[in-house]
Design a protein that fits this description.
The complex is a heterodimer.
Chain A: H1 5-13, H2 15-27, H3 41-53, H4 55-62, H5 66-87, H6 93-106, H7 124-128, H8 131-137, H9 142-169, H10 176-200, H11 212-229, H12 231-236, H13 244-247, H14 263-278, H15 281-288, H16 294-314, H17 329-339, H18 343-360, H19 368-385, H20 391-404, H21 411-451, H22 456-464, H23 474-482
Helix pairs in contact in A: 1-2, 2-17, 3-4, 3-5, 3-8, 4-16, 5-9, 5-10, 6-9, 9-10, 10-11, 11-14, 11-15, 11-16, 14-19, 15-19, 16-17, 16-18, 18-19
Chain B: E1 4-8, H1 13-25, E2 30-35, E3 46-50, H2 56-66, E4 70-73, H3 81-84, H4 90-110, E5 115-119, H5 123-126, E6 133-136, H6 148-162, E7 169-175, E8 177-179, H7 186-196, E9 201-203, E10 209-210, E11 212-214, H8 215-230, E12 239-243, E13 249-250, H9 251-261, E14 270-272, H10 274-291, H11 299-305, E15 309-311, H12 314-320, H13 328-342, H14 344-353
Parallel strand pairs in B: 1-2, 1-4, 2-3, 4-5, 5-7, 6-15, 7-12, 8-11, 9-14
Antiparallel strand pairs in B: 10-13
The chains are: A mainly alpha, B alpha/beta.
């Protein structure tokens, strides 16, 4: 990893972030470690692919519970394979369509691979040497295999439909419904597949299977946030995922978003997109509450925490239309440290970023109130799973106070209580007046006495020495006090 | 047998909406309104009775005469902001809110009324300013040592709930701060901040969430409560239930949304730390005491501005099947439009009558 001069400068100023990076790299203790010694050569190749194709997922996958380590690594590579075919604009639709739809069958074929990708496709080599993946895939438990194949089948069909539509109409993501459907195929299904793998392995709560919308949100929150962040990169690659239904409210043509002239409109459009994504956030936290095993929790929680941080970064940030923005490595390390502890820490991250989003929100934005309500909903959800107040404590404090001062039950009692209160204060005022007068008069008398030469200091010392009577020779005693040191 | 409903305070802000919601959802019911005076424009299919809830003879006479099966007792007094934190108005507030309720309960029970729905307030719980109230539900205790309004609602609620028995079903609704067209307190005083140049100032961190509820939704909850008490299951009988818009937002954002409706966006934002605001409030209270003229600022007001007060809303959903029909955003639009149509003249007059800025339900 090369170190850039700008990075050095950045971390010289943001020392806290540098500390986060060092802490993460020195102190992070993986829950599980894979053991490359015991792995077959083809599996080792698979993990090399994993490192190459995904920087962010690779490390969390490799720390997974041994039961799920290989199935999830292969699941990732299979989906990445599908993605590499779908993304490649050099493959014709006639060739692409059956490839995508039959991909789930090919993953089990011995020695299957594909070298039809264009030379510029970055993950081309994965498909060229895909026989390593198919070989390992055939070794995993049939239950896991069925789940992964089922998802690959559904995703392949969804992607094929999307490609056909894109070729036909030019715009594939027209309505918000299309947008949700597209995200369902590429991410919602992953959430479903992973949930089934977690439950099958006994590492997650079965109840998650009964809540498909939570699984869906897990995928959609990540995907939608990435789609917002990658707007510029996708636009340059001639891909458009922002639904027309949303952008057409703010600009006439999609290209207008990138024109600095339309900065305000583009920002409003991006917050419309952020709002759409933000509405999934509380369901992601709900889902995470169902994960029991620490490595599975980390695996699922880290990307979600990164997503809420990214969402805050892209919210009302005009830079997204000019370049690819990213959270800094220091921030990423802090998020990873907190996300690998427990749900409460993850909730803190969500609350922190929801508040940051809320701070950036402005009434100039047409979605101002909706965003404010969405942030409130996240806070309310966190409060519902981790209440900061206990009604029993308040009730106990109140009944203790009631014992100390019984509340007025009716008007008459209230009146007498008020009278008693008044009487009490009358007494206090009276006492204050008496002592006040005494104090003033005594001060006056003492003052006058001192003024005329009274020696209270001498008198006090005499008293201390136990001489209560009249001193025999006052003048000599005073003499002694005044010049004692000489 | 037809249903006949007596609605006290039916000419007031919330009362008008309750009458409207009842009539709209149950056109077959007979509605009688009991209030201190007759409305300027009476509605044709509604009967009106003039009476005072603090006068037992007056209300007994009206209840005996109209023989309702249902009473919605919504008449009450909310002290204006200047009186909210003091104790000067205690007797007046208690007389109307507590004695009035006691009289209505006695008259109702005596006349064989079946269902009694009473408009309480979340203030019975949240006016005790020693605590914050995030995501609260009905397990939280009511407080009898808070502010006069909250204390009065606590005392009256205890009367309402203990009056519940087999033949006489009672229910207490606890709406949050409310707003809507015709509201004299919340939206007009938020709007007034624009003219006073107070919009850039935020007390505290501004992250504290509130429930703010559109008046029409609260009216719906009253009708649902009546329906529940008349049903065979009567699950809401003897229960106190929070009513909200189920959209907790920061009070600051509510204000910003109102100001935006009037085309105003604060030019900058200035955060005043809680401790400094609290001290300023303390000084202002002494100035008030010394000069005799109330100031906008007080320590109570500062605490209100920084308070966290929102409920889960689960009991209302479960028992009453309540869901807010109008969202906050739509509610704000309706309210601000009403204010604009009302004309600046009438509005200016109202402003003179009040110097409040954060009233309570």
């Amino acid at each position: 990893m090369g170190v850039k001069a700008t990075d050095v400068l950045y971390y010289a100023v943001h020392f806290g972030e540098l500390r986060n990076i060092i802490q993460w790299q020195t102190w992070h203790d993986p829950v599980h470690n894979r053991d490359p010694e015991k792995e077959s050569p083809s599996l080792r190749v698979c993990f090399e692919f994993l490192d190459k194709t995904s920087r962010s997922f690779s490390s969390v996958i490799q720390e997974l519970h041994p039961e799920l380590l290989v199935p999830i690594a292969l699941f990732y590579l299979i989906l990445r394979g599908l993605d590499t075919i779908e993304d490649d604009m050099t493959i014709s639709l006639q060739e692409k369509d059956p490839l995508l739809r039959n991909f789930y069958k090919n993953v089990e074929k011995e020695g299957w691979n594909y070298n039809g990708n264009g030379p510029d496709e970055k993950d081309r080599v994965l498909l060229v040497q895909f026989q390593n993946v198919t070989e390992e895939f055939r070794k995993i438990k049939p239950e896991y295999r069925d789940i992964i194949k089922d998802i690959a089948k559904k995703m392949g069909n969804g992607m094929a439909d999307y490609c056909a539509k894109a070729e036909q109409n030019g715009i594939a993501v027209d309505t918000v419904e299309d947008y949700d459907l597209y995200c369902h195929y590429v991410a919602g299904l992953v959430g479903n597949g992973l949930t089934r793998l977690f439950v099958e392995s006994g590492l997650a709560n079965k109840a998650l299977l009964q809540r498909p919308h939570l699984q869906e949100s897990m995928g959609l929150f990540l995907q939608k946030t990435n789609i917002i962040r990658d707007i510029k990169e996708d636009f340059d690659d001639k891909r458009r995922f922002w639904p027309k239904e949303i952008w057409s409210k703010h600009v006439e043509k999609f290209e207008d978003l990138f024109d600095p002239k339309n900065k305000e409109a583009a920002l409003n459009c991006s917050s419309d997109m952020v709002l759409n994504s933000l509405n999934h956030a509380d369901q992601c936290l709900f889902y995470l509450a169902g994960l029991k095993e620490q490595s599975v929790f980390n695996f699922a929680a880290i990307p979600q925490s990164m997503a809420i941080a990214t969402l805050e970064l892209v919210f009302r940030n005009p830079a997204i239309f000019q370049k690819n923005v990213k959270i800094t490595k220091g921030e990423a390390c802090r998020i990873m440290m907190q996300s690998t502890q427990n749900l409460q820490k993850v909730c803190e991250i969500f609350r922190q970023y929801a508040r940051k989003i809320h701070k950036k929100n402005t009434p100039r934005d047409p979605n101002f109130l909706k965003i404010s309500i969405a942030c409130g909903k996240i806070e309310q959800f966190i409060e519902s799973i981790f209440p900061s107040q206990d009604p029993k404590v308040i009730a106990a404090a109140q009944s203790a106070a009631k014992l100390a001062a019984p509340p007025p039950a009716n008007e008459a009692e209230a009146k007498s209580a008020a009278q008693a209160e008044e009487a009490k204060w009358d007494t206090i005022y009276l006492l204050l007046a008496v002592f006040g007068t005494l104090f003033v008069i005594s001060s006056l008398m003492i003052g006058v006495a001192v003024y005329f030469g009274a020696r209270f200091d001498v008198a006090f010392n005499q008293l201390k020495q136990g001489q209560f009577g009249k001193p025999s020779d006052a003048a000599s005693i005073i003499e002694k006090y005044d010049h004692g040191e000489l | 047998m037809g249903i006949s409903v007596l609605i006290t305070g039916g000419i007031g802000f919330l009362g008008t909406f309750i009458v409207e919601a009842t009539r709209e959802q149950h056109p077959e019911w007979n509605i009688t309104v009991l209030d201190l005076h007759l409305p300027k424009i009476p509605k044709p299919d509604i009967s009106y009775e003039v009476g005072d809830v603090t006068d037992l003879a007056s209300v007994t006479g009206i209840v005996d005469k109209t023989k309702p099966n249902v009473i919605i007792h919504t008449a009450g007094l909310v002290p204006e902001l200047a009186g909210r934190y003091g104790r000067e108005q205690r007797n007046r507030v208690f007389n109307i809110n507590v004695n009035g309720t006691r009289n209505m309960l006695a008259a109702a029970k005596n006349a064989g009324v079946r269902a009694f729905v009473w408009t309480g307030s979340c203030c019975a719980v949240v006016d005790d300013m020693r605590y914050q109230y995030p995501n609260i539900d009905e397990r939280w205790p009511t407080s009898s040592h808070s502010l006069i309004y909250g204390e009065s609602k606590t005392a009256a609620e205890a009367l309402v709930l203990s009056a519940n028995d087999e033949k006489f079903s009672t229910c207490a609704l606890r709406p949050s701060v409310l707003f809507g067209p015709g509201d004299h307190q919340l939206v007009p005083s938020v709007h007034a901040c624009i003219a006073k140049g107070e919009t850039p100032f935020v007390i505290g961190d501004g992250d504290n969430l509130w429930d703010v509820t559109y008046v029409g939704n609260i009216a719906d909850a009253h009708v649902l409560a009546v329906e529940n008490l008349l049903s065979s299951t009567k699950t809401a009988a003897g229960e106190a239930i929070f009513i909200s818009n189920e959209q907790p937002i920061t009070f600051r954002d509510f204000c910003l949304a109102v100001w935006r409706e009037f085309g105003h966006i604060p030019p900058y934002e200035f955060h005043i730390p809680l401790s400094i605001a609290s001290f300023a409030g303390y000084v202002a209270e002494w100035v008030t005491w010394f000069t005799g003229t109330p100031t906008t600022l007080s320590r109570g007001g500062v605490l209100d501005a920084c308070a966290v007060r929102y409920c889960t809303g689960e009991k209302a959903r479960k028992l009453l099947g309540y869901r807010p029909r109008i969202g906050i955003e739509e509610g704000i639009k309706i309210s601000c439009k009403y204010m604009a149509v009302d004309g600046p003249k009438e509005y200016a007059q109202r402003l003179k009558l009040q110097n409040a800025n954060e009233p309570k339900p």
